[in-house]
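Homework-ish question, so no full write-ups if that breaks the rules, but can someone show me the predicted structure for this set?
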Amino acid sequence: MSASPEPEYRKRTVYHAGLLGGFSMLAATFLVMGNIATRNAIEQCRADDLLASLSQVVPSKIYDNDLLADPVTITLADGRKVTVYRALEGTRVTGVAYKIKGHGYGGEIDLILAVDRDGTILGTRVLSHSETPGLGDKIEASRTDWILGFDGRSLSNPPPERWAVKKDGGVFDQFTGATITPRGVVRAIKGGLELFRDHREALLASPAVRQAVPAGTRTQLMPEGKP
Amino acid sequence: MSVHYRSIARSGLWDDNVVLVQGLALCPTLAVTGTATNGLGMGLATTAVLTVSNIVIASLRRVISPEVRIPVYIVLIATLVTLVDMSLNAWLHELHKVLGLFVALIVVNCAVLGRAESFASKNSVPAAAADGLATGLGFTMALVALGTVREIVGSGTLFQGASLMLGKGLGFLELTLIPHYRGFLLAILPAGGFVALGFLLAGKRLLDRSLARRRQGRQDRVPASEATA
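A: Not a homework solution, just the prediction itself:
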């Protein structure tokens, strides 16, 4: 194709290095511009997603605040941090919601769990999973109402030893052909309730001031919670 | 020149179709074609990347020296894909939730690098653009065909979720072809993707062969001087 012989300078290593470096710089410039152009829209989408899933599990009549505002972060015994969103009525915490993880057949199952002051489940939903379509995906609220069976449950209802699928002597249904998935979900929700029990004081403490103060000066339960 | 473009289009869409003939880019092909809508989305995203990357690489073909061409191509393609990924995430968020993981995989889609290396680096900008577009549309076609088969067999619907991706106006595309269908799980699973792809490949071969036979029959009837043209 190129009839003319390649000029001498193009065979030098410096030219190659410069070429590669130049293109990398160019690529970085474009990426920075792209990032600036899309950052706000992406943030907004993420916040909308989170709010949509929170409003599925927290009944709207128990709070009058912005659920996303002023979350608390608690640190678990194993060092993991959990962000907890609070439903407030005035300054009284009426419920909390947080994400929990379970292990299913196809990998991790992400759920969101909302609990009221007494540790009773307000609602729980699967946010994402990679279970087998048609078998394990019955945990989705859009397919069956199995997941709604957890509403109103707590660590004493049923008693802890019955917090399992029926096959393991518990009270929760498994699915035909899929036991590992519901088992993982039941275990995750039980773990979520235990998290609430262990951190009850911290989670239910009323925020001293509501949303009126600028970020950073708010009362925080864990000062190191925010990076 | 027009013949040239026609052969580019023909080769990209049918004769050298990336999926159906070259057997390239099977990872995204099998992973996203559980529904026709997802296939369409992935196909269009790939077409966009392929066309732009072909244009960029063809216009820089005299600057890029052969010794470092592959890393330069990869940097360029990765940049384009990241930009597409960010724009999808920002402005077509619902689609991004479905395709998010696979959009990043366009970087290593061998069809993109393959066209850059074998076509764009040796041809003019307009020809490379046409090649990118034709190859991309051929890819889209194969994905939609595969998605259609798998969706109908697997869940009895067609273009489920199309209104999310293409806007409310195209909601009429969403069809339930088989009401009260219990679903056929295998078609949705990756294994079913392979099976469906196999049938699709066989179908294309059969079609090509019967077309060739018909052409052959016609050539037998015309004088030899015309047949050799």
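Now go work out the reasoning yourself. Hint: The first helix of chain A runs from residue 13 to 57.
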